[in-house]
Design goal:
Largest sheet: 5 strands, mixed
CATH class of the largest domain: Mainly Beta
Helix content: 25-40%
CATH superfamily of the largest domain: YVTN repeat-like/Quinoprotein amine dehydrogenase
Structural class: alpha+beta
Bound molecules: adenosine-5'-diphosphate
Number of helices: 19
Radius of gyration: 67 Å
Shape: rod-shaped
Strand order of the largest sheet: 24-30-29-26-27
Strand content: 25-35%
CATH topology of the largest domain: Methylamine Dehydrogenase, Chain H
Number of strands: 42
């Protein structure tokens, strides 16, 4: 209800709009929605702004403005449709609107809303009534509380401070009524509630100005209060009560804890409000709700924190001092500083280690590469040297042959003793030179490819005796007593004649070299049969002996001892190393001992083994043979010159051809050719030679090619061929044999032996090919082919039968088969290859495998039993060969085909 300047009374009604009582007439004017611009018939407040303006507060439609002179009503812009409870014009000419939506201050003149402080108690809450005290501060009622808003004016404008009062301050515990707040003249403010009036005089109000001081009261760990002096996980957390400690140390797992605090202010402590900040965690201060006096932390990461707390007392006075508590959450040991230092060192260490390892590897690689390169270079240089060395040796051998062989001839013819002596001297020295060259070649061969053993069965006693015989003359000359003893007359065993010969010769030549005149050299043989059988060869001398120190090294390559007083005894230091190599090749041993004070004994032990049977008895190697053999046993077979066998000698060296003509001319008719081509042309003539002796290395066509041509041509294939070469390697021998050569002789050779071989071959050939021996050599190809076929069939039949009969013997050898069939191995090899396309070994194997297949199909035998049954010692090899032949493994074959 308001009275305007003209004395009219304005009344806001709850449902009947605005009423105006005119005191002069005593009548009401009614302003309603239907007769004026009023928006709402439900009005709740009126405020006479000035003489001309009435503000009308609607229950739902906000505030309307009436111009009293024109009585026109319009809405007040800027405040919206609020539900007004009361409108109040203050001393500053601000309009305060108490609404259900809250409190709004409005600068009416400027038409602007004034921003009020955000108070949780205030915002959004319905405000019931408004009053202004004598100091211009605003008081409002909000439900059961009274809030004082202090309006402070400064240079920048206005600021506000709020303070709240409730039943704790002496107010009734009840809600206040709408618009029930008025200031009396003495400044007392009355506020009406459900139970009556509350009155207070703001001017006479006393405030609690005591600044609160925050005290820490207690610490809780996992909801358990922490006691002073008590150990938690082996550690005391609080030495004294929390308020006295400045720092709390917690382990990383003690991360759920609560710190409680209070203030020293005892006036209305429940209205004290705490504000805190955990430095290291919060950036802002956090205000706790009133009445709360503790803060709980969960899952703080290890670290260093400071809990800062301040308080505001009931009258809004805040602490000046901030209470601080340092809280240290210690990391677990694996996250501690030391751990990180350790990790860092570890990682650095590993990195350094990896780096150095890589560096080392690279260096090592580089070093290895260097070594390899160096080794390759050295190897190449060595190879070059060796090649040179071998070439020279080969070059020396051919002329040496040409010296020694004619010398032998001359020696045989010379009867004059003095001439003979000189010739013998020449012969001996040539032989020595030859031995040296041979030794070098042997050495080089061992260096390059290693030696290979080729065992033949024979009488070793006779053989060694033969070797010793060649030293008899030397013994005579040096006045040395030389004896040979053997317990056995004969002793057949398998040995490599060439190598055993060289072993004995080396030992003997050393013995003679290092034994002065008048000494003794003895060779003795003995058969030792303990656990293993051995043949022991002892070469003893009474020479200068070998010191114990030297004994350790004499078998080393190039090792030579000091030859006290024996200047002529020079050497190369490879003889004994060859001895050791050859003996080791036989799986034997060689040792050196003192010979009872003076001289030396070399003891060689060779294990006794056996192979099939020697193809022929070994011949004494061509060394130190001082030409004692006579040519009687090579005697002429036939006297009539025209019926002498015809030899074709093929060599590019005219001296050699001449020498051969002179040497062989007595027993043979000789034709010569300077190379393979010429020889082949000669062989196109009517008369075919009975035998061809050919050098291997020749211009135009070499010996191997010639031999192949001869053997592959029907007309000439029966002619035996002997290949001569200065090359001594197994490989070239093999090549020679593969071309079908019947024999193979290394230069230099002993002429007698060559003659013997020629003779044998011619004899054998004549018995096999009687028609060829007549010298007419007319062959009718047709019948012979037929004959050959039937012969071949017979041959195969015989071979198959023999293999089948001996199927289970794994040691059935090619030699044995050829012997059984009465053919040379080479011959049989060639024939079989021609007829079956298989080598001898393959031939035997295929027969074995076919029988195996049969057994697998028809017997109950296990695969390995079948393997042994058909002569395979090793089932693995059996499986491999079986698969090669039949394409499946024997086990699979048996499964598929067996019953
Ligand atoms: P060399 O060609 O020097 O004889 P060897 O390898 O045959 O080479 O021998 C090596 C060394 O062993 C020789 O230098 C020699 O001093 C010593 N030697 C070998 N056999 C005898 C022996 N029967 N008596 C004394 N010393 C020997």
């Amino acid at each position: 209800m308001q009275e305007d300047a003209d004395g009219r009374i304005w009344i806001a009604t709850l449902s009947n709009g605005l009423q105006c009582l005119n005191p002069g007439t005593g009548k009401f004017d009614t302003y309603r929605q239907d007769n004026s611009g009023l928006k709402d018939n439900h009005l709740s407040a009126l405020c006479l702004w000035d003489t001309q303006t009435l503000l009308i507060g609607c229950a739902t439609e906000g505030i309307q403005v009436m111009d009293l002179s024109t009585r026109r009503i319009r809405p007040l812009e800027g405040l919206g449709r609020v539900s007004v409870n009361e409108l109040y014009k203050d001393s500053r000419e601000w309009l305060w609107v108490a609404a259900r939506e809250g409190l709004t201050a409005f600068d009416y003149k400027r038409g602007k809303v004034i921003t009020l402080p955000q108070m949780p108690e205030l915002t959004g809450k319905p405000v019931s009534a408004i009053a202004e005290d004598t100091s211009g501060n605003i008081w409002i009622t909000v439900s059961n509380r009274i809030i004082n808003i202090k309006v402070l004016r400064d240079n920048q404008g206005y600021s506000f401070e709020t303070r709240e009062y409730d039943n704790n301050d002496g107010l009734q515990t009840s809600d206040f009524n709408l618009r029930a707040m008025k200031r009396l003249q003495d400044g007392t403010i009355l506020a009406g509630g459900l139970y009556g009036l509350n009155s207070f005089n703001p001017e006479r109000m006393h405030y609690n100005r005591l600044v609160p001081k925050v005290l820490f009261t207690s610490l809780q760990l996992m909801n358990e209060p922490v006691s002073v002096g008590k150990e938690y996980d082996g550690k005391v957390i609080l030495e004294q009560s929390l308020n006295f400690v400045r720092e709390v140390n917690l382990a990383y797992h003690q991360h759920i804890f609560k710190v409680s605090f209070t203030t020293d202010n005892l006036i209305l402590p429940e209205k004290t409000q705490f504000i805190y900040q955990l430095e290291g965690f919060h950036k802002e201060w956090v205000t706790l709700p009133k009445g709360e006096h503790g803060v709980t932390f969960t899952s703080l990461t290890p670290g260093d924190y400071v809990l800062k707390v301040k308080a505001v007392n009931s009258d809004g006075y805040a602490s000046t001092d901030i209470a601080e508590l340092r809280i240290v959450v210690h990391p677990p040991f694996w996250l501690s500083v030391w751990a990180f230092i350790f990790y860092t060192i570890l990682v650095l260490g590993i990195l350094v280690w990896i780096y150095s390892a890589i560096l080392k590897r690279e260096r090592e690689k580089f070093r290895m590469k260097q070594i390899e390169q160096e080794a390759a270079k050295n190897e190449e240089i060595n190879n070059m040297k060796f090649r040179f060395f071998t070439n020279i040796s080969h070059e020396l051998r051919t002329p040496l042959t040409l010296i020694i062989a004619p010398l032998e001839e001359i020696l045989k013819e010379t009867k004059d003793a003095t001439k003979r002596k000189r010739l013998l001297l020449m012969y001996r020295n040539a032989q020595r030179l030859l031995m040296l060259v041979n030794q070098l070649l042997d050495f080089r061969k061992g260096e390059m490819n290693g030696h290979r053993l080729s065992l033949t069965e024979g009488d070793i006693v006779g053989y060694i005796h033969g070797v010793c015989d060649s030293f008899v003359l030397m013994a005579d000359r040096k006045q040395i007593r030389f004896s040979f003893f053997s317990v056995m007359d004969r002793f057949p065993m398998a040995f490599d004649a060439d190598k055993v010969g060289k072993v004995v010769m080396n030992l003997l030549s050393n013995a003679f070299k290092y034994t002065p005149e008048g000494g003794c050299v003895t060779v003795s043989l003995e058969h030792l049969a303990d656990a293993e059988e051995f043949l022991e060869i002892k070469v003893a001398d009474t020479g200068i002996g070998i010191s114990d120190e030297d004994k350790k090294h004499i078998f080393d390559r190039f090792y030579q001892t000091e030859h006290k007083g024996m200047e002529e005894a020079t050497g190369t230091g490879i003889g004994l190393s060859l001895v050791r190599d050859f003996v080791t090749l036989h799986e034997g041993t060689v040792e050196v001992f003192d010979n009872g004070g003076t001289g030396t004994v070399f003891v060689v032990r060779l294990p006794v083994k056996h192979v099939d049977v020697a193809a022929s008895l070994p011949v004494v190697p061509e060394m130190f043979d001082e030409g004692t053999s006579s040519s009687e046993d090579t005697g002429q077979v036939e006297t009539e010159r025209g019926r002498f066998p015809l030899l074709l000698v093929v060599d590019d060296n005219p001296d050699f051809r001449e020498f051969m003509s002179a040497t062989l001319g007595l027993q043979y008719r000789i034709r010569t050719a300077s190379n393979g081509k010429e020889a082949w042309e000669m062989m196109q003539e009517n008369e075919l030679p009975d035998l061809v002796v050919s050098d291997v290395m020749m211009p135009e066509m070499d010996g191997n090619a010639l031999c192949r041509l001869i053997k592959e041509t029907e007309r000439t294939s029966h002619i035996p061929v002997i290949l001569l070469t200065a090359k001594q390697t197994i490989d070239s021998q093999l090549e020679g044999l593969q071309t079908g050569a019947d024999d193979y002789v290394t230069k230099p050779f002993n002429t007698d032996i060559l003659i013997l071989r020629i003779q044998k071959l011619i004899q054998r050939n004549r018995s096999h090919h009687p028609e060829a021996g007549t010298g007419r050599a007319v062959i009718d190809p047709e019948p012979s082919t037929i004959a050959i076929t039937s012969l071949d069939e017979k041959l195969i039949e015989k071979a198959v039968k023999y293999v089948e009969d001996n199927m289970s013997r794994s040691d059935l050898s090619v030699e044995e088969l050829s012997r059984e069939l009465g053919m040379s191995r080479v011959h049989l090899y060639k024939r079989l290859l021609q007829i079956t396309g298989k080598t001898l070994i393959e031939f035997i194997r295929v027969i074995r495998l076919k029988r195996a297949a049969q057994l697998l199909r028809e017997s109950q035998l296990h695969v390995s039993e079948v393997a042994f049954e058909v002569g395979f010692n090793n089932p693995k090899y059996f499986s491999r060969y079986f698969k090669e032949e039949f394409g499946v493994l024997p086990s699979v074959y048996q499964e598929k085909e067996g019953k």
